[in-house]
Amino acid sequence: MTKALPFLLLLLVASLFLLSDAETTSLEPRAFESFNVSYIQNLGSCSYSVIITTSCSSSVYTRDHISLSFGDAYGNQVYVPRLDDPSTRTFERCSSDSFQISGPCAYQICYVYLYRSGPDGWKPETVKISGYNARDVSFYYNTFIPHDVWYGFDLCHSASSSQHQSVRSWFTYVILGFVLCALL
């Protein structure tokens, strides 16, 4: 038994390194240079409610053109080429703007991108999306949107990678159990 103790300690340390190899998902928005809105599926027509809250630290108003795209992990994508309307005071500081959008039917929304072009700058706080087939989802920006680049969140693959991680962890524990049983 005392000969097996160093081996067990080494095995325990190695398993901790294996288990700590988890992939972290960034909850900060980021630029997506290669995002493409040209591939849009037209499977049915569904209605979405989008509420965008502009931060109180944004500019007083913006004349910038604001575009939106969101979708699910199956390639269903909704694209709105222009949300802004300066005549209706859209995206003013400390305001919430609601939009009713029709587009292809999607399942659970897992990504959202905003695109801004113009001289003023704009800082959204949150984007909340509600749809027929999915539960409500909110994305927290609270940062200025860069000029001429799709900017946002893609959480579509984080669920599948966490599932693979839990399978790998479970498999590691099973192997450790067999090794411990063999040593005892």
UniProtKB/TrEMBL annotation:
<protein>
    <recommendedName>
        <fullName>Embryo-specific protein ATS3B</fullName>
    </recommendedName>
</protein>
<keyword id="KW-0732">Signal</keyword>
<dbReference type="Pfam" id="PF06232">
    <property type="entry name" value="ATS3"/>
</dbReference>
<dbReference type="InterPro" id="IPR036392">
    <property type="entry name" value="PLAT/LH2_dom_sf"/>
</dbReference>
<feature type="signal peptide">
    <location>
        <begin position="1"/>
        <end position="22"/>
    </location>
</feature>
<dbReference type="InterPro" id="IPR010417">
    <property type="entry name" value="Embryo-specific_ATS3"/>
</dbReference>
